[in-house]
Write a structure and sequence with these properties.
By secondary structure, the chain is mainly alpha-helical. The protein is built from four helices and no strands. Helix 1 packs antiparallel against helix 2, helix 2 runs antiparallel to helix 3 and helix 3 packs antiparallel against helix 4. The longest helix is centred in the last third of the chain and has 32 residues.
Length: 124
């Protein structure tokens, strides 16, 4: 089985286990609903950061593709960590909008950098 697939399945299974354990803790009165929501959604941000860390480590034969992967990896790591931090510490409405904004900003940076590489390649 592919190493990336195993890691992603482990993250998915881990998030499901944490969600079930947090739901049980909420039913038993050890945690409130806000804590459960923050925990499970914050884990999604950490998973994004983990995947972003893995992006530049794969081999690509083209130098521009390698540059694009490094920028994509960094932007995904940073936006994932911002997303997780907002859900850990910010008020929930701020975390929702700020987290979505961080992820969209990471996507915009990656797409913008790819377009700039493409325009530089055409100019050369």
């Amino acid at each position: 089985m592919n190493k990336d697939l195993i890691g992603n399945l482990a993250w998915g299974g881990g998030i499901v286990v944490v969600a079930l354990a947090a739901s049980l803790a909420r039913k038993l009165g050890y945690a409130d609903a806000d804590t459960v929501t923050r925990l499970v959604i914050g884990l999604n941000g950490l998973m994004m950061a983990w995947n972003g860390n893995r992006i530049p480590k794969s081999f690509v034969p083209n130098a521009n593709a390698g540059r694009a992967r490094r920028v994509a990896g960094w932007s995904l790591v940073i936006s994932g960590l911002v997303y997780a931090a907002l859900f850990a510490f910010a008020p929930l409405p701020v975390a929702i909008w700020g987290g979505a904004g961080a992820v969209l900003a990471g996507i915009a940076v990656t797409i913008g950098y790819c377009f700039s590489l493409q325009s530089r390649a055409k100019a050369a």
